[in-house]
C-alpha cells in the first residue's frame, strides 16, 4: 500500500540526521488519507462514495417505460402517493382507491412513514408526481431527480454516520500503528459496497436506512450501550423485515451478557421493555384492533410467492434443479422446513454467545446468522 524509502543524511560535521521518508507518487494520496486523521479520511472517502452513487444514478433503471408496473421507481413513488393521499389506517388495506395488487405496501410501518416524509418533499416541488390516481406511471425527469435526492439524502443522514461510528468503535484500543490504515480501508470497503449502491441508487431503494440503523445498533452494542442498540435495531426491523437476518446474533449476545450480570432477570426485562416500547410506538396506529394489526402483518410475509422467487442463489433455488420443492410439498410444510433449516444453522453461534458472549464472537454471529437466513429462509424481502 505505502511504498516508502528511508535515507540518512549526514551534515558537514559528520553527525547523522533523522531519516527522511520518501513516498512514491502512487501512494501519496493514500498516505495523506492515513496520516491526516479519521475525520479527514472519512470525509474524503465519503465524498468519493457520493460521486460514485451519483454516477450510478445517471444510468437507466429496470422497468422504465414498461407498463403496467414500470419497475422499482413506480413502486416507491406509488407508496408516496398512497401515504400522502389516504388516511393512515388505509395504507395497508385493499380498497377501490388502494389496489394492493398494484405495488401495495409490503414493508413494516417505518417504511410507510419514510414514504410519507419523502412524499412531502416530492409534492412540494412536483405535485403531479404524487397525485392520487393520475400519477400512475409518472416518469418525469424532475420526479426521478427528486426521488434520487431522497435516496442520496437517506444515505448521507443515516448510513454514512453509522458507518463512521462503527469503524471508530471497532478500532478503538487497537494497535495505533495500524489503526488509521485499517480505518481508512474499512470505511472505503463499506461505503463503496457495490451491491448497496447498485440497488439503492440504481433502482430507487432505501436499504441504506435499515442497514444504517443496523450498523448503528452494532456500533452501540460494541461500545456497551445496549439500550440504544436495542432501539436502533428495533427501528431497523420496523423499516425492513430483512433486518431479521441479524436477530439471532443480537438476541443471543444480549441474553448472554444479561445472564452474566448481577440481576439477570432485571436486565432482560429492561431490554425487553425497550424493544416492546419501540415496536409499540411504531405500530401504534395499527394496534387499536386485531384486524388492523393482522392486516399489516399479513402484508409482511408473502408466503404466496413460494419458498423462493425468481432465481436466487439460496439453498432452495439451487437444489430445485434436483428436488422440485414447490411441487412436492405444500406451503405449510415448506415453511416448517425453512424455519428448521434456518434456526439449525444459526444455533451453534447462538449457543456459543449465550454461553460465552464476546464482541468478536458477536460479529462472527452476525455473519453466520445473515448467511443462514440468506440460504434457508422462506422468500426473504
UniProtKB/TrEMBL annotation:
The chain crosses the membrane at residues 149-171, 183-199, 268-286, 361-378. Pathway: Protein modification; protein glycosylation. The keyword Transmembrane helix applies. Signal peptide: none annotated. It is found in: Endoplasmic reticulum membrane. GO terms for molecular function: hexosyltransferase activity. One of its GO terms (cellular component) is endoplasmic reticulum membrane. It comes from the Eukaryota. Keywords: Endoplasmic reticulum, Glycosyltransferase, Membrane, Transferase, Transmembrane, Transmembrane helix. Its main location: endoplasmic reticulum. It holds the Pfam family Alg6_Alg8. It is a multi-pass membrane protein. Its EC number is 2.4.1.-. Belongs to the ALG6/ALG8 glucosyltransferase family. This is Alpha-1,3-glucosyltransferase. It comes from Prunus persica (Peach). The lineage of its organism: Eukaryota, Viridiplantae, Streptophyta, Embryophyta, Tracheophyta.
